[in-house]
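Why run this: before we spend reagent on co-expression, it is cheaper to look at a predicted model of the complex and decide which construct boundaries make sense. The entries below are exactly what would go into the expression plan.
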Amino acid sequence: EVQLVQSGAEVKKPGESLKISCKASGYSFSNYWIGWVRQMPGKGLEWMGNIYPGDSDTRYSPSFQGQVTISADKSVTTAYLQWYSLKASDTAMYYCARRLSPAAAGGDWFDPWGQGTLVIVSS
Amino acid sequence: DIQMTQSPSSVSASVGDRVTITCRASQGMSNWLAWYQQKPGRAPQLLIFAAYTLQSGVPSRFSGSGSGTDFTLTISSLQPEDFATYYCQQASSFPWTFGQGTKVEVK
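The model came back. Tokens follow.
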């Protein structure tokens, strides 16, 4: 069974750093893009960026370029989303999701999704 | 970025009703469109991709249509488990963008 299991909820202060994780299992981790999606409280979905673990090719939405860092570690089949200096406006639920088809096959739709990691940034 | 506009923002319906949700893109995108369902407190789930292809395990009461700039998600006979928020997503041009969501509520 393909599964993405995300790390637990975090409560941080503004200016702190944070790295959340998305542990993949049940498929060849290197061969599928993984994306990150933000959902602010009571709001819709926003695509942040994708990573291809096979070669660490990473693409960011312009809205998130420079604000976060996406990475992956093939040895532990885990993708990461990292902030170096959190802001209150980073408070949101963050989802990872796997591209439905491997590499460049098919379109960029995503399934399955992780269960989400809630990040709260408050002084 | 391609802007995706869904309508309506919410719809009130009863079990057994036919529900139609529309998604309009700011530029043509062939059939590079997906639909997701999100229930409260849960992650989104892929329902339909490539505008009309049903994801494995999704009930056949869900269907998608459209091409270019106008797309539709139809639930032929609404079931209790279908009360949720639905999002369209374009995969034509990075960054991928979502519609603002349509909440299907109990009438």
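Chain B touches chain A through 23 residues (CB under 8 Å). The mean pLDDT of chain B is 96. Bring this page to Monday's planning discussion.
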